[in-house]
Amino acid sequence: SDGAYSQGINITGSVLALNSIEENGRIYLKSDSINISGDLKSQNILIENGSKNIQINGTLTSNQLSIKSDSILYQTGILNSNEVNINTTKLINGGEINAETVFIHTDGPYIETSQSTISSTKIINLQSNTSLFSSGKLYNPGGDILILSPTITLVSAEINTSGNNAGRIFIGGGAHGENI
User: Fold this and answer.
1) pLDDT, tens digit (0-9, with 9 covering 90-100), for 149-173
2) What H or E segment, with its residue span, contains residue 50?
3) Burial class (CB in 10 A: 0-12, 13-18, 19+), 3
4) Residue 132: which residues within 8 A CB-CB, separation 6 or more?
5) Are the beta carbons of 154 and 172 closer than 8 angstroms?
6) Buried b (16+ CB within 10 A) or exposed e, 80-114
């Protein structure tokens, strides 16, 4: 990228965007390299980057959170949102995601460490075009959990949909829903 985008974004403090200050309460972060170790709070958060990595160590809180990356996303922070959408080349998730709906798609590997927790109230949809490894925790009481990839490895992963209305768990198939 050219100009301001080539300088990168490095947030180590707190950023608070109020509707009256920031373009209807929206935060847009675009750069080749993004490192967030502080707190972001806004109505909507969109994070996009190009060829370099995204590192999230902080807490992001919003109604809608969208992350798009052409590289690797390292997520060790806390994501709180009504809706989380992540589309990246590769994801290493060792953090916490709390949302009504969680949609994660990777073109390459999705790796979830034992420190990872994803909690939802409606749906968790994890898809990888190549491989998915999880030893994390997936909780969705009464909702659905979908884990789709050509190669899936679950090592001490906790996957739970029990609740008042027991949910469903789908594991298998390709990233496009073909169950094997």
Assistant:
1) 999 999 999 999 987 677 899 998 7
2) none
3) exposed
4) 109, 110, 112, 126, 147, 148, 149, 151, 152, 153
5) no
6) bbebbbbbbbbbbbbbbbbbebbbbbbeebbbbee
- Cα separation, 133 vs 120, in Å, equals 19
> Global pTM?
0.83
148 touches 129 (CB < 8 A): no
The pair phi, psi for residue 115, each rounded to 5°, is -80, -10
| Tokens 């958060």 found at | 45
- Three-state secondary structure call for residue 180: coil
In this structure, which amino acid lies at residue 145? I
Please report, as a single letter, which amino acid is at residue 164.
Answer: N
